[in-house]
């Protein structure tokens, strides 16, 4: 049905690492028409244009907004430039898609969200993982209650990474985990506090190894391990639930998701007479059931993501990974930086209730 | 040579879970003669005796010490009973081997160490992992400088575990990791502080999921993840070094240890003119070299351990995992409990310098 | 119920590699009383006796049969001695359990089966794998139709093995795979022919690398790869069915059995007009469903096996892995040797219909 | 140096599954200029052209050869059309690259090779695997003698594959394994005979499960397992050598190649007095050494392949995977088909000595 509509027109800003992926997905989508590539490095932009059906090439965001009839702008430039480019696009009345992180600080992110809400435009973060078949299945399973209450989440995202000149390992890698948590947790990323432990054993001036602890509701805990110095690559998230536990191993294409019907439960023991300690122990039950790995559909997450961008514009609604979701991620990252500066003490996650509430 | 000596005589106290393993290894060792099994449950003791060449069976530590001509006592009873049994054996002039943890609190451990040193007896903790082929190889590689400076250590020890009635997950599982760190780190377990994050999502009254952060010298960090609620079993330790990084996967018998000649280094950049941030980034070098997995000898760790117990007695020296090593482990565990009670704040690891110093 | 019966009395012949495992399981079973250990090497026999509750020790099968009141004999000696020992025991009226292979040639095996049937004694082969939780589950799933029709079976059993002085890799390793096939296939090991390919690249005088192909009913095929020269150990069997496909990876304790609801089917295409080739292609359907891994109970296979030995004696029936099952395995091995000698040509599997028919 | 030369001009025939990969690599190579895309389906060709810098689009090989100034033709059409297209291109004086297999029968392949040699043109098969970092490293290690003498090769290539309308599983998958063997074996694919076992349990009219045995020099054996019906995907080759054994697991990006310094050797035992069997056994030695995994460079194999195509044209020499190499692969495939038709009997691999000799 949507295909009978005229495609939306988009310009991609940034032809470096990520921009070509966005451009390719806009080209392959019937929802979109790629009108222009924008990069200060015109050669790079032209090279990309040649492989994407020869859209126009421009050297500045100003030129893009002035000369081309576009509905939306997709920004794939360094994080510190997101705010300026997005604000310019929003004030020109364009819908805006921004590569993660939304901005390099929370204040900038708040301005972007406010500007978008004022203008009625869609502001969306490219939290790509939230559009993968695996994460969409996880969200669905949690939502349907298959895992029961969440007891703990342990995420590991480590590899030999490029030590970045401007951000530490938390700001580089943890946005992935945080945006996923925000998407799959029924209440979104609602931790009131965060503790961060980091190490800079190379004396590079910023953490290369990091651990985040996020207390969740009901005594549950989320923990994230990010690391640029690991020679092996691990992308694994364990989501322990009161009914079942899910393990997502993103580097195992043959079995990305395993749902274990194993666990520990505390039984009802109100009528017992023993002292509390023993009573609790006695009432613990083990469940050693089957393992199940759901078949996942195969599609490219970015294709799904540009589809959601188009749908949210056409339906006049918030996108799944909208500016507010991205702001919740920024709020945790800023609180983590404060915790790190204070030796790992729990730090409050700031946030206006309005902005941080997840629409359900 | 040692075989021409008369074997030492030992009594095993506790015929439950671990005692049979100790008894079997004493029987198979030419250093030892198993003289008696001691357990309040005489049936259990007799059952064990039948499978270990029919040593004597006694029902109390008093009876063991009075009626049998033994050199040493091996204690495999619940942790809360270690102190009383060990003190009784030490005051009877026996050498003492204690299953981990040495005691259920640091004060008791200090008394045990002091009593052993006063009597000149060997007090040794059965930190079994320190006698495995894998850990002995790791210690050797670190000692020889193959890994360079230690940058970080990340240990994961998770499985669906028996929720214990009397201890939390830290006291149950982390002694393994801590005793290994104490053994493989050149300066022993010398962290001045520890931070602990725990979760009790089952509301069992104690942590079932836990994380420990231990700052090491030179900005390095050790981190330990222990978890009773994981449906999958993981036993993995990553030791990042300035020269190479080692991954120990204890559940992969075909390649337990992998040494990666990959990493990140900061080069010399003193003559550069740029501002500090850029300069650092510019001087980072990546190394993507080969992986090497050393062949490990095959032997049972407990056999090695009872051999070390005999050798330390005969040579009148401290055992490799002696009472002081065990006390360093207890000190970290107690500090972790304090950190946990204070919401994860860094807690000082107590210790008299005398007791906590590792002999080299 | 069975525990109220008096235990059966058994003597174990052979205290070398496998005998101690049998002895230990007889001792731990309430069905059995271990009366004697028999080995020409009396020191070895005495050493085993000390660890198994001190049964009698004898130096010959004659002494065992004359002097001890036993119901059954368990034989764990080299294969070439099985026939003589078993025949002696059977003629003395004893029930007999024999370590695999039943004998070192088919004729000897037939004599043993005939002797047992004449005397009414139980003759059973210790095909241990058939008593493991994994194989019992596989048999159950096939029997219940969960896999549908069997399309192919591919078994790999390779490792760095001891090159045997007297047998080739087929006779050493393939009895495991063949006995498993005999157990799990509804009609037993009913291949009419077998082809064998072998290699002796070390010029040791016998095959160290081998491949067996066994055509099954309805165009299906079983294939077995056995190899003494592989540095990595693999124990994997894939059982492709028309409904589902099962993969058994015996070295993955966390997921030994995986059942894949994936496959290829040919649809009904009778009313199509195209030529045969295109029609067939058009009617092929792919199914990409979930994966399921059943929880397996935990027990020691040998304990189950000695229990079946006792039950078959008490109930006067054939044991699950009786002499005839073992004979079917020998028949395939002999046919494989003939195929090997003839350059891999298909060789008929001999067998009297009476002896080779599997009782259902 | 080569970059200063004018790029060679190429037309790609076939814009279906594989053609876009070839086109993309020609576009990204400084050795090549992509001049035209040729496909009977002009829409498909135009779609590909839009993503590859907009070369010309033609609907027939005739139009391509008549109207465009090209040096070479790259053919990515169904196998049965390779011969006609390649002969047309060769007779027009073009160099020709052909997707594997070179042709759908050996006779056609011989004509292509003869035509290319007569015209002096380069005829090359796109045996892509031979240009991967892994296979190039394997070839290098064997060539340098790191593995010693080859004892056995076991290759497994199984997955849930598209049952092809026109070819069986041998012709679909085994060309990969055979072309790799031809490349890595010092003497090329020189097996004099081949045996094939196949199964068609779906009654589709052709084998879906297949096994090939290829005796090699000195008692060694190569074995290939190809399978369209496996729910799990395996791409593994074990190459056992007298010095070391190499395992290539192509689906393990973190450790594709492992070299095991483990093995079995027969020692010198000429002066022993025992009978032959025992003597052999006594002289067997086991080696349980380290494992080593070489770092592999990262590049796209197809990029390397089009580079080799250009280099062989410019240097007037045979390409690494030239027509003769492809013909050796076809000869084995045809012999395998004959073996299959004769129940697995060994079948002679035909070949004129001239054509089948590998240039060294």
Features:
homotetramer, Dihydrodipicolinate Reductase, domain 2, nine-stranded mixed sheet, 11 helices
Description:
The first copy, chain A, folds into 2 domains: 2-129 and 301-322, NAD(P)-binding Rossmann-like Domain (Rossmann fold, 3-Layer(aba) Sandwich), CATH 3.40.50; 139-296 and 329-356, Dihydrodipicolinate Reductase, domain 2. In chain A, 35% of the residues lie in helices and 28% in strands. The first copy, chain A, has 11 helices and 15 strands. In chain A, the strands form 2 sheets. A 9-stranded mixed beta sheet of chain A has the order 14-13-12-11-7-10-9-8-15. In chain A, strands 3-2-1-4-5-6 form a 6-stranded parallel beta sheet, with helices on both faces. In chain A, strand 5 (95-99), helix 5 (106-119) and strand 6 (123-126) form a beta-alpha-beta unit. The longest helix of chain A is centred in the last third of the chain and has 19 residues, at 323-341. Chain A is globular and about 70 Å long. The two termini of chain A are 26 Å apart. The A-D interface holds A 27, 50-54, 232-233, 254 and D 27, 50-54, 232-233, 254. Strand 14 of chain A pairs antiparallel with strand 14 (284-293) of chain C, so a sheet runs across the interface.
